[in-house]
């Protein structure tokens, strides 16, 4: 029998279709693997309620289970709610290399004061950057511009 | 129909109809970044609607899916507050609506996180973090437009005024929310909502509207004349091709 840990590692390799440099294990979208009798149950959680990538991720996990010749299903859970704190350090490093500024662990909204916090440019490292829009090309990102190298970049925003 | 089913429908319909209106801005917003922002906000609202309507279907136990509930109910079966169905109007009106609605949703979801119903608490725990960004977005626009030019100030003031008579309905209490242990009684949120909204309006140099008359009826399925048109657009593909898959 394939162990739950081995299955977790295998399905954890499924890439996020929106940010293909990250796996669902890096993101913390993969929550767990367990056996119910001879059936494998994989639980995943969306980054945002409306994340359109969830259907594809679910399908890819099912294909991975199939390739391991395992009978199983995928469950989507909402609680506990996903947070960027679950992103692995390795995932954050991969994001920076890919050109997306990783989450900083500090919320930009929701506190008593709405603050704009500086995000370092992932391309040249300059802290002199401007937020263009708090909403970017996908729900999980905001749009920034670097004032030093003038390049626009995405920031994986804190949630 | 159980109380929990009706309560979940109210929350789900609010989110669904808000999503539909927000999405109307896509490709029509004043700038590209705003298109993207409103697209994302609409997607959050739609995601919340899906979770809630799916759960409503489960609670009802009659085999209806989220799609059945969204596409195959008639006007009088929808329980959303009338504020959510109002036409977008100009951009300032839409931002006034978003400020009122998102501030309400934020307070509601904060409380609902500790609901005795685990699923509702889960949806709320997820949604509250998303809605914080919606409140922030609306706040920034209300400040910018209200404290902007003479023209933008006049439009912001008009938008705040026009949406105001639809806000009391969000906080209306009834037997159902008082009876249902899992529910948040929205009347308990009104004071804090008023405080937060007033703070933003004051800072924007606009006047906080007052209105003796307040509309109601959405929670009982009575809607404005605009709602039928919205549903026609939302539902016509699904109803023209029932059972279609893509």
UniProtKB/TrEMBL annotation, chain A:
Instruction: Kindly indicate where the leader peptide sits in this chain.
Output: none
Q: Which domain of life is it from?
A: Bacteria
Task: Give all residue intervals belonging to the MIP18 family-like domain.
Answer: 5-75
Per the database record, which ranges form the PaaD zinc beta ribbon domain? 117-157
InterPro entries named in the record: Fe-S_Maturation_MIP18, FSCA_dom_sf, MIP18-like, PaaD-like, Zn_ribbon_PaaD
Q: Pfam families from the xrefs?
A: FeS_assembly_P (PF01883), Zn_ribbon_PaaD (PF23451)
Query: What is the name of this protein?
Result: Phenylacetate-CoA oxygenase subunit PaaJ
Q: Which organism is it from?
A: Kribbella koreensis
TrEMBL record, chain B:
Q: The organism sits in which domain of life?
A: Bacteria
SUPFAM superfamilies in the record: Ferritin-like (SSF47240)
NCBIfam families noted in UniProt: PA_CoA_Oxy3
Its recorded name reads Phenylacetate-CoA oxygenase subunit PaaC
**UniProt organism field:** Kribbella ginsengisoli
- Lineage of the organism: Bacteria, Bacillati, Actinomycetota, Actinomycetes, Propionibacteriales
In the UniProt record, the gene name given for this protein reads paaC
